[in-house]
Amino acid sequence: MICLSVWLWWAWLRGSCLTEETGLVILGQGQPCGGDIEGVCGANLTCVTLEPYDVEDASGMGVCRMPLDTDCVPCASVQCPPTTHGCPGGHVTEPCGCCPQCARQQGQLCGGPHWSRGYCDRDLTCSQLTGLLPTTPPQTGVCKVLPGYQTDYLADPLCPWVTGCNVRAGACDCYSIQTCHLAFSYQSLEDCLKVMEGDEYYWSDEEEGEEMEDEDDEDDDDEDDEDCTEWSCEVQEGLCVCGERSCDPQSHPLSEDACQDLLVQANCSNVTCPEVPVPSCPEDSILTEPFTLPGSCCPLVPSMCTCQFENCTSTFPTCPHGQQIEQIVKSNGLPGSCCDIYLCAGSEKEPHDS
């Protein structure tokens, strides 16, 4: 009886389904995952560590759960933006956990249904297009600096807890943080230690290699030429396929952006997009970038004006004796009224933005 109970408990722990084709254990929502647990989380579930752990006491175990954002949909139904080798900012995976992508920069749209418009880079907040507050899906926002709402990108409550390791002071440092950013170089302590051991082996052999360096210079140059690789993209069957290739002196490597431009030109050469007038923004505002869905030709969301609160000064006017500072305009987050305006009561001086 005891053996039967143990077997039943272990069967539940292993998962709710064993696929016949691959024998892979599919874990259900709320079941343990990671560490020494065999199997993977089922569709639209993520193995997340619910709380920070001590690497000395735990092995990276987590729980299969839905993404924290209730607006998420199954990842199979999401069309992700093209993967990019180099990003102008950080690399992120939006809170739904479906699409690794470049973090959105200032003036670019964010949020939208199931985060389809993207997730902002560090020090930026997905904010209302016209307003003073942050926004979350399904509403569309814009990435910008929002006073009073500076979120720590390594402690974002919208994102799941993730566990990993980095090398600090020559040792593997493993911990958990709540983030959508690519914050770890290694997923586990084991991976980190393997690399550290490899580095130690490399440096121990370096002195021996230096003794033969002069003799092998010419051979090394030839091998370098043969082993030269570069990152490049090409259009294949209507898609940009990128990866490492052998160096070709006859052609320059094609970046992801350049490849996407070629793809859009090819697919959209016979498409005429409706003309949308570009607004002229007040001095306290900036123009957002238009947003086009992956694979589409025409912008889904056109450019529009949004407050740039950084343009507002943070000092108050110096009033003469007997006069007081008086607020005559309160910011409402609308272009043209982005900043609080103060003047000295009874003074004929020009108003002062704050």
Automatic annotation (TrEMBL):
Stretch forming the signal peptide: 1-19
GO CC terms, sorted: extracellular region
Database matches in Pfam families: IGFBP
Keyword Transcription among record annotations: no
Boundaries of every IGFBP N-terminal domain copy: 68-146
Superkingdom to which the source organism belongs: Eukaryota
Keywords on record: Disulfide bond, Signal
InterPro entries on file: Growth_fac_rcpt_cys_sf, IGFBP-like, Insulin_GF-bd_Cys-rich_CS
Renumbered residue ranges of the record's region Disordered: 203-227
Name of the protein in its database record: Cysteine-rich motor neuron 1 protein-like
